[in-house]
Design goal:
With about 220 residues, this protein is of the alpha+beta class. The chain has helices at about 40-50, 70-90, 120-125, 150-165; strands spanning about 5, 30, 55-60, 65, 95-100, 105, 110, 115-120, 135, 140-145, 170-175, 180, 190, 195-200, 205-210. Strands 5-8-10-11-12-13 form a six-stranded mixed beta sheet. Strands 1-2-4-3 form a four-stranded antiparallel beta sheet, with no helix packed on it. A three-stranded mixed beta sheet has the order 7-6-9, with no helix packed on it.
């Protein structure tokens, strides 16, 4: 028998008036599978294909995590970030960039970052791997908070990326118009509404444009 449980009670809305009116933040829903059901890549992807409207990840105990999909505005933001990262990767011909692609971390979790970059060195470690889902932690991960995302859930996710081997992580929060920068063995650093940001831990020329990410502000009224 399959059982489902909420990971936490739903928090009160923190959405600003400028954003679309969201009644509540949504925590992931965890579905526990029987222990004898081996959750192979093939079975996991088959489950995902049968439930296309769901954003699905899995944990190290074989549990499935159902996450609210991003809205149109959040999806556009993610696409802009992936495009910048992909363009840099093509230009410098280093590593591989992915957007919302599943990877399996060393701790067994299958997770899908909004945008990520994997170095040639880490790709070489999985060369010849016949797994459908790559067994690798990206060097650089970007997560974008959508209108329904609970901030604490995303912070926990970012901490996992770093603990599992990411060299750099950015948590982009359009609500607060800020980016939290995660690095190994350091406290997160927050930067308020930057026009652009360079991932110096990865490459000095890897700069992401954030002017298309932040909510548009009304121009200041003219004074006589």
């Amino acid at each position: 028998m399959v059982t489902a449980e909420r990971t936490a009670s739903t928090s009160e809305s923190q959405a600003t008036p400028e954003r679309s009116q969201v009644a509540e933040r949504i925590h992931p829903l965890r579905i526990q599978l029987p222990a004898e059901w081996e959750l192979t890549d093939e079975r996991f992807l088959e489950f995902c294909s049968l439930n296309e409207g769901w954003h699905v990840e899995s944990d190290d105990e074989g549990g499935l995590w159902i996450v609210a999909p991003p809205g149109t505005e959040s999806s556009e933001r993610e696409a802009n970030l992936v495009t910048d990262l992909m363009n840099w990767t093509r230009r410098c011909r280093r590593g591989r960039a992915i957007g919302s692609g599943l990877v399996q971390l060393p701790n067994g979790w299958r997770r899908a970052p909004d945008a990520a970059w994997i170095s040639d060195e880490r790709l070489a470690e999985i060369a010849g791997d016949d797994h459908i889902i790559w067994r690798v932690c990206p060097d650089f991960v970007v997560e974008v908070r959508s209108a329904t995302d609970d901030l604490e859930d995303l912070q926990t996710k970012m901490e996992m990326w770093i603990a599992q081997g990411a060299r750099l992580g950015w948590l982009v929060d359009p609500d607060e118009e800020a980016i939290s920068i995660y690095r190994p063995e350091q406290e997160p650093q927050q930067i308020e509404r930057p026009d652009s940001l360079t991932a110096t831990e990865i490459a000095d020329d890897l700069t992401i444009d954030f002017t298309r990410i932040w909510p548009q502000r009304d121009p200041a009224p003219e004074t006589s």
